[in-house]
Amino acid sequence: MAGLYVGATAGYSGKNMVVMGLGLRLQKEGFSVGYLKPVGAVPKEIDGKLWDEDAYHVQRILRTNESPETLTPVIATHDFQVRAFRNQVGDVMSAVKDAYEKVSAGKDVTIVGGSGGMHTGRYCNADGVRVVTELGLKAVVIDRYSKELNYDYLLMLKDQLGDHLAGIILNDVAQNFMDETRKLIVPFLRDRGIRVLGVIPKDPLMGAIKVCDLADRLGGKVISAHHKSERIVESFLIGTMQVENFMTHFRRQKNSAIIVGGDRSDVHLVALEGDSPCLVLTGNLYPNDIILTRSEVLEIPIIVVREDTYNVAKKMETLLMRHKLRDEIKIRQGAQLINANLDFAVLREQLGL
C-alpha cells in the first residue's frame, strides 16, 4: 500500500490538477486509487451535507465514494477555527489517521490532497509536513511560477521532509522563463537532492474562465448575447488608451476580455469587430443602442459592472490566477499536461508501485 501527499509551496498552485491527473493516470494503468483531503478550506453544503467543495469535485472525477467526514475529516469552518484558536478541537491528527486507514484499505495507492501551502493548518496541528511524516507518506510538492520560483522554500521543505519528499513539480512556467528553469533551476535543485518530477509549461486554458462565471464573480450582469456566455476568457486588456494604441495591443492578445468604461463606444466597436470573447463595461454605464445591436449580431456578450476600471482589473488578475479547475475541458487539459510532463517512472519507483 502506497500513500502520496500532493502539497504545494502556496495556495492556488495546481494541487487539484495534479491530484486528478495522477489519479486518472494510475487508474488507467490498473491501480486501485483512494483519495482524501485531510483539511478542507472551502466548506459547502451539498445535498444537506457539509463537504469541502474542492474535495467533492475531485472525488467525483476520480469516481471514489467516501462520506464527507471520511473524505475530509477536518473542515475549517469559522466555528472550527474559533475553537482551534481556543485549543478546543482536541487531537485533529487522530481523525486524519482514522480517515486515512479507512480510505487506504485495499487500495494500491492513496492520494492525499493538501490545502494551501505545506504549512497551512499548523494552527490546528494538521499542516502538510505533519500529515506526511505522521502517516508515513511520500510527498510531491508543487511550486507554481509567479514572477519567480520559490527555490528557498523548496530547500527548506527538503530539510523538513527528508526521504519523505518524492520530488517536486514546477508548474505554470512562462515560456520566456522555461530555458532558465531547465538549464539553471532544475540542475540547482537536483544537486541538492531534490528530484524534479516535471516542469509544466504555462497553458492559458488552465487559467481561463467562462463569461457567465466572470460576470458572477465580478458582481456584474450579462446584458447582451446571453446565449454566448459560455465563451472562454483567457486574459484581459484594459481599454483606457487611445483607440489607435488599443488596436495595436488588441491584435496581439487572443481570447482577451476588454475592460473599459461604458462611454467608450470607439473601443467597444473595435473589441466587438475583433471578436473579443466579451466586453466588461465599468462604472455601471450601459452602452448605446448601436453597440448593443452590434453585440447581438456578432454574438459577443457584454457585462456591466459597478466598480471602476482599476478595481475590476485587479479582481480580474486574481480571478484568472485562482479560478478553480471545474470544467471538463480544463480537467482533460490538466490531465494531458500531467501525462506529457511528469516522470511517472520515477514517481512509481518512489511509491514502490
Structure report:
Homohexamer. This is DRTGG domain-containing protein. The chain has about 350 residues and is α/β, with parallel strands linked by helices. It has 2 domains: about 1-205 and about 325-350, P-loop containing nucleotide triphosphate hydrolases (Rossmann fold), CATH 3.40.50; about 210-320, Udp-n-acetylmuramoylalanyl-d-glutamate--2,6- Diaminopimelate Ligase, Chain: A, domain 1 (3-Layer(aba) Sandwich), CATH 3.40.1390. About 45% of the residues lie in helices and about 20% in strands. The strands form 5 sheets. A 6-stranded parallel sheet has the order 2-7-1-8-9-10, sandwiched between helices. The longest helix is centred in the middle third of the chain and has 17 residues, at about 175-190. The radius of gyration is 23 Å and the shape is globular.
Key traits:
6-stranded parallel β-sheet; alpha/beta; 353 residues; Rossmann fold; Udp-n-acetylmuramoylalanyl-d-glutamate--2,6- Diaminopimelate Ligase, Chain: A, domain 1; 17 strands; 5-stranded mixed β-sheet
How many strands, what sense, and barrel or not for the largest sheet?
A: 6 strands, parallel
Strand order of the largest sheet: 2-7-1-8-9-10
CATH superfamily caption of the largest domain: P-loop containing nucleotide triphosphate hydrolases
Q: What share of the residues lie within helices?
A: 40-55%
Task: Indicate the CATH topology of the largest domain.
Answer: Rossmann fold
Strand proportion, as a percent range, falls in 15-25%
DSSP strand count: 17
If you compute it from the alpha carbons, what radius of gyration comes out, rounded to the nearest whole angstrom?
23 Å
Helix run count: 15
CATH class of the largest domain: Alpha Beta
Structural class: alpha/beta
Shape: globular
